[in-house]
UniProtKB/TrEMBL annotation:
<dbReference type="Pfam" id="PF03099">
    <property type="entry name" value="BPL_LplA_LipB"/>
</dbReference>
<feature type="domain" description="BPL/LPL catalytic">
    <location>
        <begin position="20"/>
        <end position="204"/>
    </location>
</feature>
<dbReference type="InterPro" id="IPR003142">
    <property type="entry name" value="BPL_C"/>
</dbReference>
<dbReference type="InterPro" id="IPR045864">
    <property type="entry name" value="aa-tRNA-synth_II/BPL/LPL"/>
</dbReference>
<keyword id="KW-0436">Ligase</keyword>
<protein>
    <recommendedName>
        <fullName>biotin--[biotin carboxyl-carrier protein] ligase</fullName>
        <ecNumber>6.3.4.15</ecNumber>
    </recommendedName>
</protein>
<dbReference type="InterPro" id="IPR004143">
    <property type="entry name" value="BPL_LPL_catalytic"/>
</dbReference>
<keyword id="KW-0092">Biotin</keyword>
<dbReference type="Pfam" id="PF02237">
    <property type="entry name" value="BPL_C"/>
</dbReference>
<dbReference type="InterPro" id="IPR004408">
    <property type="entry name" value="Biotin_CoA_COase_ligase"/>
</dbReference>
<dbReference type="GO" id="GO:0004077">
    <property type="term" value="F:biotin--[biotin carboxyl-carrier protein] ligase activity"/>
</dbReference>
<dbReference type="GO" id="GO:0005737">
    <property type="term" value="C:cytoplasm"/>
</dbReference>
């Protein structure tokens, strides 16, 4: 397989994907930026439209959850953010877009012949060693109008330098290292945008109820966290241990410990054993 990186072709991506024919209002590709999420948050403050897409060839300050660095070297991955203004969706429900984005990335992997699973809340793991090939970061807008920026980073080609393992010791991998049938980053971005748009449309129509949108069962099947003994480290550093038994219609993880069940809204999840 040819693993030579070629620039993302914005004309190919825009064809059939921009309104009125397609779902997106704006779709740009830039050669470099600090963070596509940060750029769209700033654009949102200036009145950018619902379903605005920004993709960059590289990020110099890409971030994952809890402000962790996300390696985004030039020509290696697809670094994509989408600004959404879903009128009628409660602010508290915007976090379930992580499920929507995870399922879209999973379709990318499946379409390219890569064995992948989801790890709650925001990781996509690939290959027999469950290495991390993609991550998702949803950031709600701080404004009176409900809005959110959904950031997705996919490692398409091998990273040029070693990346330190994330929480739980997850090593990094790429679609190429997992024998993807294509590593053309325009193809990867096109599949991602189509898969995300279709699921986001259903999510929005259902008022962010994942079950009503027909997305919850698919997520449960693909979520490798379910059935695992896990440790959850909350935003305040507090830890909770238990067995992950479900994901609810709002995208929250349900833990069982002894006779008690509790719902986890956010946190780093470490699988104690696979």
């Amino acid at each position: 397989m040819n693993q030579r990186s070629t620039p993302i072709d914005v004309a190919r991506l825009r064809a059939g994907r921009l309104a009125p024919e397609g779902p997106y209002t704006v779709l740009d590709v830039v050669p470099t930026t600090g963070s596509t999420n940060a750029d769209l948050r700033a654009a949102a403050a200036d009145g950018a439209d619902d379903r605005t897409v920004l993709i960059s060839e590289e990020q110099t300050a890409g971030l994952g959850r809890r402000a962790r660095h996300w390696a985004s070297p030039k020509g290696t991955g697809v670094y994509c953010s989408v600004l959404l203004r879903p009128a009628g969706v409660p602010f508290a429900a915007l976090g379930s877009l992580t499920v929507v984005a995870g399922l879209a990335v999973l379709e990318v992997a499946n379409r390219l012949g890569v064995d992948a699973v989801l790890k709650w809340p925001n990781d996509v793991l690939a290959g027999p060693d469950h290495a991390k090939c993609a991550g998702i970061l949803c950031e709600a807008l701080s404004s009176d109008e409900a809005g959110v920026v959904v950031g997705i980073g996919i490692n398409v080609l091998p990273l040029p330098e070693r990346v330190a393992p994330g929480p739980g010791g997850l090593a990094a991998t790429s679609l190429a290292e997992q024998q993807a049938t294509s590593v053309d980053r325009t193809d990867v971005a096109a599949i991602l945008l189509d898969a995300f748009a279709e699921r986001e449309r259903r999510w929005r129509a259902a008022g962010a109820d994942l079950a009503e949108a027909g997305l919850l069962d698919g997520y449960r099947r693909a979520c490798a966290t379910l059935g695992q003994e896990v440790k959850v480290v909350g935003p305040d550093g507090a830890t909770t241990n238990g067995k992950a038994v479900d994901v609810d219609s709002g995208g929250q993880l349900v833990l069982e410990s002894g006779e008690q069940r509790r719902t986890v809204f956010a946190g780093d999840v470490v699988h104690l054993r696979w």
